[in-house]
Amino acid sequence: MGAAAVGKSSIISQFLYEQFIGEYKETIEELHRSEYKLTDTQLELDILDTSGVHSFPAMRTLAISTSNAFILVYSVDDPSSFDEVIALREQILAERNDENVPIVIVANKTDMESDERVIKREIAETLVSVEWGHGYVEASAKENVNIEGIFKEILRQSKVKYSLSPVLERRRISIPVLTQKKKDLSPKRHSID
């Protein structure tokens, strides 16, 4: 979840398909599903790519109430996107009534020049990790930097034991191609936003 144009879809595309989406296309909602064998555990991962606009509050509320963990994304060059992460976190905690819900905050677009960056790592990381007690990851979907780290951190926050390195080869085989995505909005499955 996050504001529009922060790179949520690009992060998912890099993680699942090793492809960067260069042009911006507004997402309404897309579900990506994949299965992984993690050491002794079979994990079914549902990633719900949500809209970055407030036009769909019912969909957002449903996503919050049915998800097991959350990845909140902001762009390091857009302070309003960080404000959106703060608001989303507050909404998640209020609707879930659970201070321990797994949340990872992602600072995306770290490939930008340092003078373009307006949200400093030290400030964001201290707020997220120390004050809130959530995971914090700096990433670049464009350069494919630390994308896997985002998903390792959400697993850590969710207390799932993992060993992703042997899975990477199998992941590419088990994941359908981008054009063959299934859309299933069933709230019965565990999902990560």
UniProtKB/TrEMBL annotation:
Gene3D superfamilies cross-referenced by the UniProt entry: P-loop containing nucleotide triphosphate hydrolases
GO molecular function: GTP binding; GTPase activity
One Gene Ontology term, aspect cellular component: plasma membrane
Compartments where located: Cell membrane
Domain of life: Eukaryota
Keyword terms, alphabetized: Cell membrane, GTP-binding, Lipoprotein, Membrane, Methylation, Nucleotide-binding, Prenylation
Family of this protein: Belongs to the small GTPase superfamily. RasD family.
Protein's recorded name: Small monomeric GTPase
Organism this protein belongs to: Lottia gigantea (Giant owl limpet)
